[in-house]
Amino acid sequence: MDITQENAVPKAPERGITPTDLHPDTLAIRTGHHRTPFGEHSEPIVTTSSFVFGSAAEAAAKFSGEADGFIYSRFTNPTVAAFQERLAAMEGAESAIGTASGMSAILATVLSLLSSGDHIVASKSMFGSTVNLFQKLLPRFGITTTWVTLGDPDHWQAAVTSKTRMLFVETPTNPLTELADITALADVAHNADALLVVDNCFCTSALQQPIKLGADLVIHSATKFLDGQGRCVGGAVVGPSRIIDDAIFGYMRSCGPSMSPFNAWVFLKGLETLGLRMQRHCDNAEAIAAWLVTHPKVTRVHYPGLDTHPQHALACRQQARFGPVMSFEIDGGQPEAWQLIDQLNIMSITANLGDAKTTVTHPYTTTHARMDEADRLAVGVNPSLIRLAIGLEHDADLINDLEQALNA
Ligand SMILES: Cc1ncc(COP(=O)(O)O)c(C=O)c1O
Fold first, then answer.
1. Burial 125-161, CB ≥16 within 10 A → b, else e
2. How far is the CA of 407 from the centre of ligand 1 (A)?
3. What is the pTM (predicted TM-score) of this model?
4. Atom 10, ligand 1: which residue's CA is nearest?
């Protein structure tokens, strides 16, 4: 694959932390902060549009990439750089780049690495906006996608052509929590000289490290669990320096879908508690899924932690735990699903997920509503489906809330 060399991401000076020696929970707290001469203990938010140079020659050297250093916050900022360095360390990757949203991370990846005539293989079992981007926008720029069955690597293999440059997968998927075998898809991609890109939004690096399983690039919607309290919108692409620092950084510099320093700071602090929070999210989700399967009005529960989930064995192999998100179907259709949602007292009706507050969503009429109806139904997003992104409240209160709503 031909990746155009652009200016490299400037690196802040090293402070002696060797990421390879430390557990991700320690990296989440200790990497990325390069203390200023003030000696601050907590990471500072550097809110400035541009940076000052000591001389015209220094400015020229930094602009040309001959000298490291910060230039302009559209593409270089110390707080954003701290977030990037920390996230890369936690994913076990060389580099990361922060973006304005998860969708802009996906767009940056596709537009910086693919050209007109190139081909993607992906599954429609993923977030509705990603399907829309690939299906409706990218063809206008000559980039086409073949849609395959998420969990069948042979189907992915059969869809590969001489033009295939990227396999894009979300695992577990939004909202049905289906899984793809990352190692098997990495083999398919690499045999075709293509890249495997994994959207790691539901698990985060705390539960799944796709690069260690063979993926080339990892996408994050930082909006979700990296923030963890539903405050900011942001995203990231993580991977090797030859892709991130060269091709994607060049795109970010020219096109500008940057992460703000304030948002980077919120995410940076969110990373410090990510491992801890994900454990509690998973404890709660496992308890709720086990309870939901026992309720007579619930016809189906989609959660990788249940041994009835078709890919439970893969989830045990590929993920540290089963994740905070699940969906379930109730007896009836849209009116019954909406009625149940409206009866909930604690859970918030909102499209976001990854919050300390449990959120409930009706994907068919919200997050996936812009997908064609036939596509929605084909991937299982039907009117009786409800998605829960389990938060950090006490599990007994959440179960009581569901029980009173289901019995109402
Ligand atoms: C799996 C997944 N990927 C990407 C995105 C897009 O992220 P953002 O909303 O930060 O653009 C979302 C948003 O819900 C998502 O669920």
1. bbbbbbbbbbbeebeeeebbbebbbbbebebbbebbe
2. 32
3. 0.93
4. 102
